[in-house]
Amino acid sequence: MNGITRNIKGDKVIWAVVIILSILSLLTVYSSTGTLAYKYQGGNTEYYMVKHLIILLLGFLLMYLTHLVKFTYFSRIFQIALYVAIPLLILTLLIGDTVNEAKRFLPLPFNLSFQTSDLAKLTLIMYLARLLSKKQGNIEDFKSAFIPLMVPVLIVCVLILPANFSTAAMLFITSLVLMFIGRVKFKYLASFVGITVGLFVIMLLIAKVYPELMPRVTTWNSRINSFVRNDQVNNDKVYQVEQSKIAIASGGFFGKAPGNSTQRNFLPHPYSDFIFAIIIEEYGIWGGVSVVLLYLILFFRVVKIVIRCPRNFGAFMVIGVGFSLVFQAMVNMAVAVNLIPVTGQPLPLVSMGGTSIWFTSIAIGIILSVSKEFDEESINDEQYAAA
Question: What's this model's pTM, rounded to 2 decimal places?
């Protein structure tokens, strides 16, 4: 046990947050998949818990292996990975599995699937961190600095957009935040936003005339209308939100206790998109607040690593990845409490999933890799000073 502990390096608080969220995930997924088990597994309620446990353990393995890698190696690794991710996104749009009128997954052998946007999201953030660190000497130049940053963001977001608007929007915002932190001129970013919004409006007008080109536009419109008007424009989405509200209200302050949720039988996707509502129903308001605090602690530790990190690439990489994870968590929880329209974003490290958990684990492993490197340098400096 001591040997394993010695090999686990990096920010111990982040490790603790990950472990707590993973335990909560296992308990809540087991509780919320009962209906799924009776529908598809003949009442075998342990099936999804065991499957989720295996996915979490593989995620921990990926996190552990990633955090052992010297973070400077990620610069070249993810540059190559982006060149792989873009063709995969195109391939997904062409031959991907269609779920709810969207092609998000590439079919794999053994009845498995791969969500290519998870790979593209992580690789784009890492690619931007690499470019920002290399362009700091002439970061205010439009042609040599801003254009190389803008082009990959547009390409990746446009390829993700037809199947997953929320992921494309969140990735676009994360990219803007990262470029702003990287000292890109604000007027360039404002122009970029203006051009992007203009292109998006043109795309919507084309989709309105030729709806068969982008069938998801109707879904986006109905979700926004059902949220803004709070009417029955989209019965399915209104039903999801109403059931989520019932789960939260019935949980009260202390909750119904683990495994005692009733809304899991009525709420669509209680193990993924609306898992936060089930957490509040079973663990109460204090449980929901605790989850929010865990993500805020994670972000606080990320900022602390960035402040102490002496290298530009490491700092940009950590803040980009950390902001993306916490931003996604806040979006998921905001949907559950009806602060924003339904997006379909999972709660990182908590919602049931495959590739989403694994890429989240790799992302946290990258943060821990930077933290580990800095901690080792601090120890060496202290030993040198003592000598």
Answer: 0.89
